[in-house]
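An instance noted here:
***
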Amino acid sequence: MEHSGGCRLVFRRLSRGGYGEHPDRVFLCRGPSSLFSCRRRWVAGDTDICLRVFPFPIIYALGVGLAICALAPLLPVLLGNQFEPAVGPMRWLAWLPLLATPRLFLQTAFLASGRQGMGVATLAFGALLNIGLNLWMIPTWGWWGAVLATYCSEFFMTLTFTAQIVLRLDGNGCAPAQKLQIGN
């Protein structure tokens, strides 16, 4: 994980500079390199650490969703009446970060633990599912179909990452080790 040192440096500079911390960036920049190693087994304790950090981004996503929902009616006031139809989709899409955060945590943990192939396959299939559902749902339901397709694909990816992690754990709470091949 060569990039994690650079992430840590940027994170330290931002937090020292008084810019605050973005909760999921703390995990995404710092977590994988310190919690997971491609050269050791993924143990149940790693999951426990993730679960202790997890509430902070969820609370952040919930706050942002509430703020966007509450402020959505101001969109036509600020940008003009032609943006009135955007208020509905904006309110429904405001909750997307709340659903995407668990997937992002699982995806990062999954990829950082040496299972890049299945992780990328899950993301690719989720993207193809989103495209397919959009092609089917948008002509029928318009923007509501696009929102529903997005939520369905996010839920599918979260469920798939969860199933892959749970099904690979053995009785001791460990998943088989997989070494990451760098440069070979």
In short: Residues 1-24, 33-40, 170-174, 177-184 have pLDDT under 50 and may be disordered. The chain has one domain: 42-171. The two ends are 15 Å apart (CA to CA).
